[in-house]
Amino acid sequence: MPSNTRPALEQQDRDDPLAAFRDRFALPDGVIYLDGNSLGALPRATPARVAEVVAAEWGTGLIRSWNAAGWIDLPAQVAGRIATLIGAPTGSVAVGDSTSVNLFKLLGAALALRPDRRTILTEAGNFPTDSYIAQGLAALLAQGHSLHEAETDAILAALGPDVAVLLLTHVNYRTGAMHDMAALTAAAHAAGTLVLWDLAHSAGAVPVDLAGCEADFAVGCGYKFLNGGPGAPSFLFAAPRLHAALRFPITGWFGHAAPFAFDAVWRPADGIARAMAGTPPILSLAALEVGVALAQEAPMNLVREKALRLGSLFSELLAEHCGAFGFRVLTPADPALRGSQFSIAHSAAYPIMQALIAHGVIGDVRMPDILRFGLTPLTLRYTDIWDAVQVLRTVMADEVWRAPEYQVRQKVT
Amino acid sequence: MPSNTRPALEQQDRDDPLAAFRDRFALPDGVIYLDGNSLGALPRATPARVAEVVAAEWGTGLIRSWNAAGWIDLPAQVAGRIATLIGAPTGSVAVGDSTSVNLFKLLGAALALRPDRRTILTEAGNFPTDSYIAQGLAALLAQGHSLHEAETDAILAALGPDVAVLLLTHVNYRTGAMHDMAALTAAAHAAGTLVLWDLAHSAGAVPVDLAGCEADFAVGCGYKFLNGGPGAPSFLFAAPRLHAALRFPITGWFGHAAPFAFDAVWRPADGIARAMAGTPPILSLAALEVGVALAQEAPMNLVREKALRLGSLFSELLAEHCGAFGFRVLTPADPALRGSQFSIAHSAAYPIMQALIAHGVIGDVRMPDILRFGLTPLTLRYTDIWDAVQVLRTVMADEVWRAPEYQVRQKVT
Predict the structure, then answer these.
(1) Do A101 and B97 touch (CB under 8 A)?
(2) Where are the alpha helices (DSSP H) in A207-338?
(3) Are residues B206 and B317 in the same domain?
(4) Looking at chain A, which terminus has fewer C-beta neighbours within 10 angstroms, N or C?
(5) Which range of residues forms the domain containing residue A289?
(6) Are B39 and A58 within 8 A, CB to CB?
């Protein structure tokens, strides 16, 4: 174990092969940003690119930019970039809509492939919107589908002949625990079940090999580790072997085989393009592309190695400097079982986080008791973790968090 | 009838009470933009606002901006502005997702309100994506729903006891013909049918009084007459009297009664907020708000009056200067029956439009034979119509459109 003194960590920062990436982001002074798992930081290249799209492509090019500026190809272009980050073959990813809508589309298409099965299986404690979408779709179909939530260690046992789809989030949004995608996918397939992976906390953060795992479907988020900006478009993946049979429930004109023929009857486009629905959001796609292109530049093995070291460092420093304050570590210690965030529990999580934010250390809380810290190797230094833990120590030791202003609940937590 | 000489039209431009709005848009030199019905022009205020959201709110504010910059309230704020343009009560409009997805949500909710009926009635020649969405939803539900397309003059006769929803576009995308919203809504209600109005070519362009017409549902586009930018978010409307019973098919976390409680079970938010699905696209919403706010400044009676005059002028000048070239006018002459575009047919529509665009007059085509010209009173001058018709006359008289480069089909037409 390295010696966790600040000078030693300064040396680690100097030796960090990813160190140069930090300057590619526009980070505010006086802030240690540990919430890149909720909203990724702004790439320095994004403002100029967005300004170009707005002023030149929209303002001057006007409608001509659909052809002249390549807007029509932008969704597939961004999708192709994302594919390289998640081990997806060319032509298996589509970009557009929100994660919720893409989940709906994939889940609808998946259920149609298993017409004799009525169960959607998920993990208890999965990100709620995944469950919400499944609940809404089941109610809409009115064919007796239901959502079954199994505890983590009971997922395999719950796979059975009625399970159409296994819907899992690869890295848990609360604890940062990571599933074994290959093993769970294989187990599901052995039961005749399709698997839909939510990569919200995975894409750009941890190695993902959808093709190698023979994954069926995946969905992911553009505004977390892909740094696409607030509410950035989401992406979806479907294995090419399934494409010809896929019938997505939302059949919009951009998924049509010939969108500008204005045919009377919807016909699916070839391949994953049939997953597209409405007109793609060009400004947002342009911003997302900058974040994705930046992520493509960083070797994933180095990203992963640094994320694990940042997590281990946080855990060690917490034990050493904040051991007296009653924090409970939620993120697994085993590197194979954790993603790129560090989560701890404390009964006063909310005011503690408000005090941290007020003192320049930005994470977030998931009620009632979880403090989440995102570990984004492209923007964080080892010394940032040191400094954050020192702020946390002060907030706890001096009971800073008890101040009335930190008890006030915000709309968004 | 005014005397249609260029000097007379210059005087009309000087007398135009909306003339000052033109300078609020960043229009390129050398272009007469007659495609604002497809992609609205860039408001001058948009680049600075988008830059502020990107650099300050995202870059510096980071995750804090959900509260501090009011991102969480932005969708409802933009929706409230749009409501004022379409005669919708406060709290009856939601913004987000694409028009296709919003149509899907509304149509799903509408069919659930008429469980004993199986027909969706629309107009033959309606914008295809409206029909596509209905076809896809019917296939998904697998309950025997079908889409019936009636000719325009047969819509009333097609209303019957099995028609759950009448799905109509207020202003036809090809011809610019406008329906009588009040009369058709009343006729549908008399048959027990709900009505879903597509306002893509209406919002910001023609007077719309959803409340006065007792409309049930409406959907509309952010990037046409609302000038929200390419792929801007769409809006949807549902009458408040229906809200409590509405079950939208896509049940995402932003439509939950308490999105940040992360409850296991989806519960609908009060009112129209339940129509929201995923995380709202902040950059796009900020751009859209600028366009909508600008539209709010322009008195609709003046906008309507000028649009009608621009259309009549186009028709008169076409007859006078291009009468020999075989154009057929598609847009009704009756002001009560037309929206804010002027459409003409010609067998060589495609190359004619390419030649017009190459000579600075930008409209678009809808194959096989329609040339569309959007009439946007906030950016257009009466002399622009004169100049455009002169270019058209040259393109036709000199057979400019026969040049080989104008025959090449673009991806987006």
Answers:
(1) yes
(2) 240-243, 282-297, 300-321
(3) no
(4) N
(5) 70-297
(6) yes
